[in-house]
Amino acid sequence: QSTLYDGRTGEPFDRKVTMGYIYMLKLHHLVDDKIHARSIGPYSLVTQQPLGGKAQFGGQRFGEMEVWALEAYGAAYTLQEMLTVKSDDVAGRTKVYESIVRGEDNFEAGIPESFNVLVKEMRSLGLNVELVNTKPKQGDVPAEAAE
Is the pTM of this model over 0.90? Predict the structure, then answer.
């Protein structure tokens, strides 16, 4: 340790300062090694979500904070697309592709595969989980009208 002097007044500072050599190395991070893009690619067999990482030709992770940010902006349709069709909604992926080919601009998101995995995990714990559809199908007669 050594005494350091103020450059303006010439008075020594109250505390001694630790001094020594600094070794510095340049990091070899190049853009060409880092860049990665994906249009289509492999999916996980269990969750049907895109694999992660450049080595597996995976997709970009859309984390919880990104979800909250899009929700705060009010981008509900973009958020729905990111969390279903662009992730693990297998039937929705096919429907979107077909609607693009036909020139239509609407799609209906299905149930994500991650929800099905959650239901199967809950059933493995002995919990009976069923999906109850409250919307009447086209052509169905409501219960009150049937009487």
Answer: no
